[in-house]
């Protein structure tokens, strides 16, 4: 089942906003622990999922599929961000 356009647009908007949030982060000393940063990023993902969940369209199956795709995209962005953070911690 293909995603309906409204949900595709919401996912695209959410990914853009989430990526903007990640790009705004400045790593500086004293750094928070890796575990703390993982918790923060997971909280951000949950916030975005919950926020956009209320705006999804279509039947429940369609909404679930859209949210699953959205979560996968956010998890991918999060993993890349956390890799950069780990590299920062190693270099400081």
Automatic annotation (TrEMBL):
Question: What name does the UniProt record give this protein?
Answer: Alpha-hemoglobin-stabilizing protein
Record keyword Coiled coil present: yes
Classification of source organism: Eukaryota, Metazoa, Chordata, Craniata, Vertebrata
Sections of the chain in a coiled coil? 53-80
Sorted alphabetically, the keyword list is:
Coiled coil
Q: Which domain of life is it from?
A: Eukaryota
Organism equals Rangifer tarandus platyrhynchus
Instruction: List the PANTHER family.
Output: ALPHA-HEMOGLOBIN-STABILIZING PROTEIN (PTHR15914:SF0)
Residue ranges annotated as transmembrane are none
Q: Which Pfam families match?
A: AHSP (PF09236)
């Amino acid at each position: 089942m293909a995603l309906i356009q409204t949900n595709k647009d919401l996912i695209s908007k959410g990914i853009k906003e989430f990526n903007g949030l990640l790009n705004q982060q400045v790593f500086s000393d004293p750094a928070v622990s890796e575990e703390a940063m993982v918790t923060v990023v997971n909280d951000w993902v949950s916030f975005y999922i919950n926020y956009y969940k209320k705006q999804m369209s279509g039947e429940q199956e369609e909404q679930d599929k859209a949210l699953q795709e959205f979560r996968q995209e956010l998890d991918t962005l999060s993993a890349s961000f956390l890799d950069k953070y780990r590299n920062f911690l190693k270099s400081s």
